[in-house]
Amino acid sequence: MKLILRKITLIICILLSAAGANAQFDGVELGSPFDFELLLSANFGELRSNHFHAGVDFKTGGVSGKQIKCVADGYICRAKVETAGYGLALYVMHDGYMTVYGHLDRFPADVAKRVRDYQYDKERFEVDLHFQPDEFPVKRGELLAYAGNTGYSFGPHLHFEVRDTTGNELYNPLCFYKESIKDTRAPKATAVAVYPRQGGGSLFAANSSCVFKLKNGVLADTIEAWGDIAFAVEALDYMDGTSNKYGIYRTELFVDGEKYYESQMDNFSFGENKLILSSVDKGREKRDEGTFQKFFVAPNNPLRELKAGDSRGWVTIDEKRLYNVECHLVDYYGNKSVVNLVVRGDSCDIVQPANDMLLSWRKRNTINVPGASLVVPKGELFDDARLSIVNDGGLCTVSGGYASTGEDVFFHHGAELSLSAGDVPVDDKSKLYICEITEKDTAWVGGKYADGWVVGKISSQGCYAVAADTVPPVLEPVGEKSWMKNARLVFDLYDNETRVTSFRGTLNGKFVLFKYNRKDKRLTFDFKQENIRSGNHKLKVVVTDAYGNSTVFEKSIKY
């Protein structure tokens, strides 16, 4: 009897595991956030520059102001206003889970008043307010907010998330809306990257990775390899009724019918977000060579959605024969495409790399050269790596690659780079920072000066130097002649060196609420929204960048 019970328990566990991470929502039904057909502009888990997309984006016909309905009973537990990120966002607590609504055009009137009162009380635009269950209760189907384009959004839409009650675990919202959205189109792959293991594999008798372009998802040529090799695929998904492109929900790798790797994007946490730096070939992406999703797993990539067994997705080619490789791409609706590859085993001598400068991901690593130092904390590398530093006339080059694949190195949370302040011609050393120099431009990294050094955190190998920010932000009036007619003040606000960190406006010496969207670099003030009476006013706006440089605009105006 006990044996039977154990077997039943095991079967139940297997079935629950196969049902996916969203099984905990069985029986939960969410209403539509809109009263029109649901179409997506982005899906869950899509590959972004430094994170996975945390929800789905519902299209709003390209316009702001569409009414959003609450999808289930609950209460508004949080309201947030940011200059970037989600812009205006609401968080609603339900029974056992939370929903999030981002890039809003405006809040409901009662919440908007609470937010505005807080902004004036604290004299700042950005806020993060939390509410009690009895303050803003909501019912399924009632008006919740209005969709917009605030924050880091590039077109009107609703960013929608489903989280657990802690707000840290994210789940695929499509499990609630699968029947409401039509999709009969399969993903499509455009290229495949193949990596020989450094010192343990070869590709066409060499130790360099190769990219193979696909024609209609097919590679006509045979890949010649020996030893251990791994794969990555450039692909996108598509849906009915839209021209948008989406991320891939499920991927699988089979070799001669045996599964070597699989991933399925049902659930992840914010703590796992930066693992995208190891799940994608970020070096190729940074060089604009495409976004390749890996079908293998680095030793220090614990993203729970990736499953690859002991091989970690690496395929051993050790026989002189043909190996049939299949890369499966599947969307949430089961539409599937298969990339078929043929690998011919071709024995050859495998090039052995030098063992110098090998850094272990299990240890803290430090590299010191005259004028520069790099500290890589334990766990910041996703795999063992070979890194070196060359400091030439103030230009510091951190170069190398991962020991297994030769890919560019990206750090999980960042490595500490210290550069000598040297002879940078600036009297105030607090203005010094670290910048990254690429073929396209120079980008602010950050950092602070201390005891002759500028210390900052870098995210990857690259070329770095010390620079100084002594120039204040740009604050330029836009359409000044129309300000009073439109009852609205508009400025262009940006910083050419680093970043705008604060802004403050006053009328007649009293704080007034200016709004800033970092995306379009616009600072605005609305007389009517802020209930300003007609008359003569003395306007003053002060903006400051990350290194304390300020610009002041003052003008007497009549409204």
Detailed description of the structure:
- The protein is mainly beta.
- The protein has 4 domains: 30-180, Glucose Permease (Domain IIA); 188-345, no CATH class; 358-468, Chondroitinase Ac, Chain A, domain 3; 474-558, Immunoglobulin-like, CATH 2.60.40.10.
- Strands 1, 2, 4, 5, 6, 8, 9, 11, 12 and 18 form a 10-stranded antiparallel beta sheet that branches. Strands 13, 14, 15, 16, 17, 19, 20, 21, 22 and 23 form a 10-stranded mixed beta sheet that branches. It has a 6-stranded antiparallel beta sheet with strand order 24-27-28-34-30-31, with no helix packed on it.
- Strand 5 (88-93) and strand 6 form a beta hairpin.
Looking at this protein, list some descriptive labels.
9% helix, ten-stranded mixed beta sheet, Glucose Permease (Domain IIA), single chain, 4 domains, globular, Chondroitinase Ac, Chain A, domain 3, 559 residues, disordered N terminus, ten-stranded antiparallel beta sheet, mainly beta
Record field, number of beta strands: 42
Question: Strand count, sense and closure of the main sheet?
Answer: 10 strands, antiparallel
Q: What's the number of structural domains? A: 4
Provide the structure class: mainly beta
Helix share of residues? under 10%
Q: Tell me the span between the first and last alpha carbons.
A: 86 Å
How many helices in DSSP terms? 6
Radius of gyration: 27 Å
Shape: globular
- Mean pLDDT comes to 94
β-sheet strand percentage: 35-45%
**Which residues sit in consecutive blocks of at least 5 with pLDDT less than 50?**
1-20
